């Protein structure tokens, strides 16, 4: 394809794992990219902290610079892969204010300051794309923003963190403990030396905020996400899950709900954002997502149930997402026409997790005496939580058991208000006949 | 949201299953759509054959018209849901020539005349969107066209026909025969009274052409798709598949290949498009796609393996895809800027299926005499087909068996050229020691 459009100048901020792969694709696939865009994509420089460091993909030395601002100022498209809040935020703002388009994979930045940046881009008539910030290579930005734009998304459940999915998958399939599975993940490079952001759910929480933003066309931030990690998952939890036909996944859930109202209170429409270990039936599509893969399960009023599956991280896959954004923007610059950014037009309040409805699996160690079942079942009833299934199960292996305890009870509830479930468990714990609470896990996808 | 843009006029061609749902969404969700677009979407009329027929969703009577041309001539966006070639093609061309944008779910039309229509839309500076033509509600158009635009798709494998997936799933899970599973699918409304287009693979073949078009940025048509249906699948096939750890799916496959060349011939880059029953390992993501669901599995150089999953048909899901296209186009009309259609810029020749590489599962009924294995294995070797696994297996249940036959041999080959595999099987069939060829099935995803 011959092209008459002048080259588009690309500035790359960061030359780490993903940045190196972006540099490689821009170099090695230059001809293909030019054919698809109708103009050459010219990498004008790469902002790095040290110009003489060794890189996974080595560009000519003169392309590396430590002067980010001068680099940003000459670009048509700025690709930000620095991570963290600063200097990423200031550099993106600088690019936008100059009318340059921005591609970013910075989930932390978007989860905290996304709305501000989307608005700035829209006001400047330019474009901010961020496919790489959620679920690595999995196309989710355009499906949610465009493909489902005529539908109403009611719920998103994502396996949005590959590290924790790897760990939980190992625990499930090999019976490994959390510590052993984490060590294995670290050995394979799936988990960092300090795994806090992954195993405590913070990474998934940032993605929940971004997904909710896209799904509900309304702004949400990280601090609105209820977040529980996977560090407390025990072998007993896994055993209880497996016995009941479930698998444990760390899910990032964003759902549109209407509070029940009543008692003088109006019902409110809003969204609950939550990240926590979740039981899924074995036959649920998300249950088949193994290892470090990610997947986003979407429920929409008309479309029904959709799932998007793929590698959630890694240099080349994430670079593919970055390049998809870059080519899409470049095509628009060649064609002409105003830039477009996802700017949430709706407002939807974030509601506390207590307003969500879910169901619980509860395993109690109980004293072997008459009336235990009636007493425990009574606590559920008292809080309006109905029981779907109850089963007396053997005490989990390795569970020491208290002197008087000879059995355990497993309850699976129907869907109920989270706050009622929480109170139910608190009250069960206080019962004299209950010697231990072995597992309390939320169940979805039933 | 207050809006100053004048309403956009929508013409709907067809009021069947999908058309009725589109009419419902345009009516019931008018407020949401207006907020997302920034202009009202005004349904100005519905072209139907009979204005007095009963509809799933009844609009005011005056909206129905039998004058399609007059309707098209007053629209900003034409939604074509008539199916078939004519009058759909002429009406789309009429709309395009007037500069109206078009949304269609017409796979037959696009698989045969897509390139011509895409080009016409591009030349007229308008837009032709067709998300609903492949895999119902599953967003696949934008992921392939935009999200993966900086990557190189090497292969697509789709479960693109819900009817056949339902039938094969029933045969696999309940042991039903093809005829029984088809009857059940018809009873449930998953299969039509005349199921030919589904069970012979024609529907999937049309989708393969459209998917290849999107994936490889090059034009392909239905007549370039090698097509085999599922009517010949026997209980013995299912048994052989299950025993070897596979499941049978009807896949639409489009793959980029380079022919080996040699013998004076140059190697050629091209694409092979094929639809046939395929064995997949049980742990493959596509193997978990049950019932009438669809899924598209994409392999790309940088992104790796992606999968898109969802309902492949049905009024409301398909209408969701139509509305996604409609809102995306409407947003562009409000924002301004040129229309965009997927116009293949590359050329990639369609190569014959013989050039593809795949592997085969072959089950032979053989005479119980010395040297049978050496003789059969020799035929594979002679054609350069290497054997991954061989196993002597019992004759399938219900298989009558010939007088001298007492056993059967199951071979699974390594990947080899399709034409070599085909010749191998032809020669095996002719061997005196081979009394019957029980199963020959292609294997993918190993």
From TrEMBL, chains A, B:
Cofactor: a metal cation
Pfam family of the protein (one): ACT
An example molecular function term from Gene Ontology annotations: homoserine dehydrogenase activity
Name under which the protein is recorded: Homoserine dehydrogenase
Top-level class of the enzyme under EC nomenclature: oxidoreductase
Residues covered by the ACT domain: 361-445
Known catalytic reactions: L-homoserine + NAD(+) = L-aspartate 4-semialdehyde + NADH + H(+); L-homoserine + NADP(+) = L-aspartate 4-semialdehyde + NADPH + H(+)
Binding-site residues for L-homoserine, renumbered to this chain: 192
An annotated GO BP: methionine biosynthetic process
Protein family according to the UniProt entry: Belongs to the homoserine dehydrogenase family.
Primary role: Catalyzes the conversion of L-aspartate-beta-semialdehyde (L-Asa) to L-homoserine (L-Hse), the third step in the biosynthesis of threonine and methionine from aspartate.
Protein source organism: Micrococcus terreus
PANTHER family, alphabetized: HOMOSERINE DEHYDROGENASE
Active site residues per record: 207
Residues holding NADPH: 107
Keyword terms of this UniProt record: Amino-acid biosynthesis, Methionine biosynthesis, NADP, Oxidoreductase, Sodium, Threonine biosynthesis
Binding site for NADP(+): 13-20
Organism placement in taxonomy: Bacteria, Bacillati, Actinomycetota, Actinomycetes, Micrococcales
Source species, domain of life: Bacteria
Pathway assignment: Amino-acid biosynthesis; L-methionine biosynthesis via de novo pathway; L-homoserine from L-aspartate: step 3/3; Amino-acid biosynthesis; L-threonine biosynthesis; L-threonine from L-aspartate: step 3/5
E.C. number(s) listed in UniProt: 1.1.1.3
Family annotation (SUPFAM superfamilies): ACT-like, Glyceraldehyde-3-phosphate dehydrogenase-like, C-terminal domain, NAD(P)-binding Rossmann-fold domains
């Amino acid at each position: 394809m011959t092209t008459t459009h002048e080259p588009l100048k690309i500035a790359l901020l960061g030359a780490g794992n993903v940045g190196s792969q972006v540099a490689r694709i821009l170099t090695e696939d230059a001809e293909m990219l030019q054919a698809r865009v109708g103009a050459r994509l010219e990498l004008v420089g790469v902002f790095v902290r040290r110009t003489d460091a060794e890189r996974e993909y080595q560009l000519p030395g003169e392309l590396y610079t430590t002067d980010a601002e001068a680099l940003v100022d000459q670009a048509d498209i700025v690709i930000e892969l620095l991570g963290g809040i600063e200097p990423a935020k200031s550099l993106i703002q600088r690019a936008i204010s100059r009318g340059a388009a921005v591609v970013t994979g910075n989930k932390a930045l978007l989860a905290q300051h996304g709305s501000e940046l989307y608005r700035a881009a829209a006001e400047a008539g330019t474009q901010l794309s961020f496919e790489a910030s959620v679920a690595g290579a999995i196309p989710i930005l355009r499906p949610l923003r465009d493909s489902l734009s005529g539908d109403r998304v009611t719920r998103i459940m994502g396996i949005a963190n590959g590290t924790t999915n790897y760990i939980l998958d190992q625990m499930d399939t090999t019976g490994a403990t959390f510590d052993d599975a984490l060590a294995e993940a670290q050995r394979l490079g799936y988990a960092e030396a300090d795994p806090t952001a992954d195993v405590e759910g913070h990474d998934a929480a940032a993605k929940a905020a971004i997904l909710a933003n896209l799904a509900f066309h309304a702004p949400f931030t990280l601090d609105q996400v209820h977040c529980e990690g996977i560090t407390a998952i025990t072998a007993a939890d896994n055993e209880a899950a497996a016995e009941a036909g479930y698998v444990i996944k760390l899910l990032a859930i964003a759902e549109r709900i209407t509070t029940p109202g009543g008692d003088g209170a109006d019902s409110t429409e809003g969204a609950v954002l939550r990240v926590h270990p979740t039981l899924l039936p074995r036959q649920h599509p998300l249950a088949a997502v193994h290892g470090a893969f990610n997947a986003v399960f979407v429920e929409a009023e008309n479309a029904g149930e959709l799932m998007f599956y793929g590698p959630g991280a890694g240099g080349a896959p994430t670079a593919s997402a970055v390049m998809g954004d870059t080519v899409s923007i470049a095509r628009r610059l060649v064609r002409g026409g105003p830039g477009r950014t996802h700017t949430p037009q709706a407002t939807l309040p974030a509601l506390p997790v207590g307003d969500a409805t879910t169901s619980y699996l509860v395993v109690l160690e109980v004293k072997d005496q008459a009336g235990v079942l009636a007493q425990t079942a009574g606590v559920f009833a008292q809080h309006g939580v109905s029981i779907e299934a109850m089963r007396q199960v053997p005490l989990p292996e390795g569970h020491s058991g208290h002197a008087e305890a000879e059995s355990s009870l497993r309850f699976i509830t129907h869907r109920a208000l989270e706050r009622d479930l929480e109170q139910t468990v608190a009250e069960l714990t206080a019962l004299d006949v209950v010697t231990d609470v072995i597992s309390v896990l939320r169940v979805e996808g039933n």
